[in-house]
Amino acid sequence: MTLISIVEIVISVLLVVLAFLAINSKSLIKAVMFLSSLSMLAVIGFVLMKAPDVAVTEAVIGSGLVTSLFVFTLLAVRKVGNKI
Amino acid sequence: MLQYAAIVLLMLGLYGLLTQRNIIKIIISLNILEIGLNLFIVSVGFVDGGLAPIFTSVNNSSNLVFVDPLPQALVLTAIVIGVGTTALGLALAKNIYQKYGTFEIDEMGEE
Amino acid sequence: MKNILALVFTLFLGFMIITALSNNDAFPKYGETDVITRVSQKYLDRSVNGNPGEIVFREATDLESGPANTVTAIVADYRSFDTLGEVTVLFISSLGVALLLGGTKQRRIELDFHPNFMLRVGSRALFGIILMTGIYISIHGHLTPGGGFPGGTMIASSMLLLYLADDEFRAKIKGFKILESAAGSAYVIIGLLGLLLGSYFLENLLNNGVLGDLFSAGMIPIIYVLIGLKVGSEISGVIDNFLTEEGV
């Protein structure tokens, strides 16, 4: 078992665990943070499969754009005063 | 091993899309479904021991074994379209909150 | 009841995908695909219309498709009609967000935390570095991984930094809208020029130089710069629509 195959198995298990936590969590902001780290682990998966174009695109979009759009939508909820 | 993780992500995303009652959770499940789908499509073209499909000064001939570049080009388009879908869905969710005051589907009465 | 039905359906779908995966012609085992039997070998050898022999970096001149990055050659030269469709889908989603959340006479949303002076001024230095990285990745799309789409999103990320670090900042939206429309129309006009002067829509009109130089691959760096500007200004417009509300 080389080092790369051990990393591959650890990343696969972490992907499934994080997706399950993101769907079943009670608070919305925690689910958004789990989705953001799921994106980052998928970038490592793309690099392991020798696809650098896809990895750069997913890294920029998953970390900067989608997470910030979710947080801006949840900010509108906080403004009215409800507890999420 | 990454291929089976991608299929499980697909299944989890579809299950979340079918059973969740909160609009933000539905959009998060759609995003998980798209991440799983992109991982699966790139894994169809992977060759063991192949190189990334770019000509550089180290890999400078076309007789070497490269990874399949066509699924990567398709996934590049699919990621950007996923961003467009998510942005439109979140704009709709924001307007729904301003009109009904809640994100749950069960509590939106008739107006 | 509905949860159990959804679970059964999802498990059935997963079972069907896995049994279709095991050693077909279309899905060989993970890591053992034979690229020579697929059409991608013709994209790698640049031999869709004829055979140029072996391709060596910095020595092969005037190939069928110039970029050293094969994924760029597929996205911007062999299948650039699909890229036009993707640009259209992004335009439609940005139009939808502007219609839902836009309006006249807007101001920033009031929050209950205010950034202090150091954050507001210090983020301007980081803004220049991120903008430079975005322009670099967008221009060198035919030599290194990346291209127009991640480069444009990095330009939008630099605008996102300015929005987050300052409470009163609003970009010049009118300039962004004009830039986006001009870049999108320029892409379609270049395609129509190919139809009039050459023989087909979106033909590569300039000549492909030596493989691996900065000024190679014909028109593809110009197309990627246009796509980068268009995507960057579009996503900046979406971010501005999310952070403003009605008011004076």
How would you portray this structure in words?
The complex is a heterotrimer of chains A (84), B (111) and C (248). With 84 residues, chain A is mainly alpha-helical. Chain A is built from 3 helices and no strands. Chain A is flat, with a radius of gyration of 15 Å. The N and C termini of chain B lie far apart (50 Å). Chain C has 248 residues and is mainly α. Chain C is built from 8 helices and 2 strands, in the order ααααβααααβ. Chain C has helices spanning 2-21, 40-45, 70-78, 80-101, 117-139, 148-165, 173-197, 220-242; strands at 106-108, 244-246. In chain C, strands 1-2 form a two-stranded antiparallel ribbon. Chain C is globular and about 65 Å long. Chain C starts with a helix and ends with a strand. The chains are: A mainly alpha (84), B mainly alpha (111), C mainly alpha (248).
Task: Provide a quick synopsis of the model.
The complex is a heterotrimer of chains A (84), B (111) and C (248). Chain A has 84 residues and is an all-alpha fold. In chain A, 86% of the residues lie in helices and 0% in strands.
Give the tags:
heterotrimer, A: 84 residues, mainly alpha, C: 248 residues, two-stranded antiparallel ribbon, 8 helices, 2 strands
Largest sheet of chain A: none
Gross CATH architecture of chain B: Orthogonal Bundle
Mean pLDDT, all residues of chain B? 90
Intertermini distance of chain B = 50 Å
CATH class of chain B: Mainly Alpha
Main beta sheet of chain B: strand number and arrangement? none
SS-derived structural category of chain A = mainly alpha
